[in-house]
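Q: What changes when zinc ion is included in the input?
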Amino acid sequence: MTRFESAKECYRAVGVDVEKAMQTAANKAISIHCWQGDDVVGFDNPQGGAGNGIQTTGNYPGRARSFEELKADFLKACSLIPGRKRINLHACYAVFSDGWVDRDKLEYKHFAPWVAFAKAHGFGIDFNPTVFSHPMMMDGLSLSSPHKDVREFWIRHCIRCREIAQKIGEELEDTVLCNLWIPDGYKDIPSDRLTPRLRLKESLDRIFEVPLPNVIDSVESKVFAVGVESYTVGSNEFYMSYAATHKGIYNLLDNGHYHPTEVVSDKIPALLPFFDKIPLHVTRGVRWDSDHVVIFDDELREIMKEIVRNDALDKVLIGLDFFDASINRVAAWVIGTRNAQKALLWALLQPDLKQAQDDGDFTYRLAMMEEAKTLPFGDIWEEYCSRQQVPVVWYDRVKEYEKTVLEERK
Ligand code: RNT
Ligand code: ZN
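A: The predicted holo structure follows.
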């Protein structure tokens, strides 16, 4: 008997169908954020980089500096990651083949090269307006700005982004998540907390006025950021209420965007009774919203368990959002995305203990949960990787790519 066959037996003994779990995992796409590859710089302002409260730290050599380099690195990472993939794009990754335009003038043609790339490799695409790192961020405000011209600029940008997302969806015969996050807020105690929110609400109403069939719209809240410590316009309560009162607009949960003892794993089943879609940004905050590379930790497994055991694989859109420039960026993609895949498969392999809870048998519930932790998961994961034609041991391949490709980028 191979190690895989014997592991399968162990799972069968606790009522888990390993073959079914592997199949389900292979069919659930994970949306991989393009911005890990270049430190959230993008192509529309090479001097730029993350600003307005988001920050990449580190200067590991080999950052992708162009569309060609980013595609190559993304493909390298994907060759080492099992499962279906989507590519999560930001508007600042527009490809300017015939001249630069500002963000309020972007068109589908600036993303057509990404669509060709996605088609060639069987990726889906998700999209995001880029409302940061730009001169029109006035006093750190965009859609909630007191200045009409600032608000109008960003409204135009967001409407264009939704239209681009719609066209991408048509081209790929798919739906495209178009997620809006804005950094608006104040460093110090506001003298007015309401008016900026009223202005943001008005801006959102304009942006979402026209429903688009291939677009899933979402809004992403946040607690605070560096330089935005006292007040965030787009807070959890604000966007949750907005989504709840606007059909077709969803509330995206980024697990770095809540107070440290709040968990997204509990928010998913709290939203499921009300929403038919829950988009996620899976990240890892260390002490704050630091966007460290996702690891195979308790909360990641708990998030995946909630998705799986509530039959919510079609409702929860799993996207990643981390950026680390202090380690090999391709490796960061591989580590974080493999961990998301791994946690998904792990969740699919957990014994069903719902009945024990309803029976009031909390002793059995805890005993089985704990025993399940040491089932031979590694053997199943290895088999899953081989079936998906990706290596179990991948590190040397990234190291080789670093030597031959990344180190040449001087
Ligand atoms: C920022 C948000 C947002 C960004 C990306 C780049 O705190 O998490 O999702 O990370 O849009
Ligand atoms: Zn996010």
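Observations recorded in class: The longest strand covers residues 85-90.
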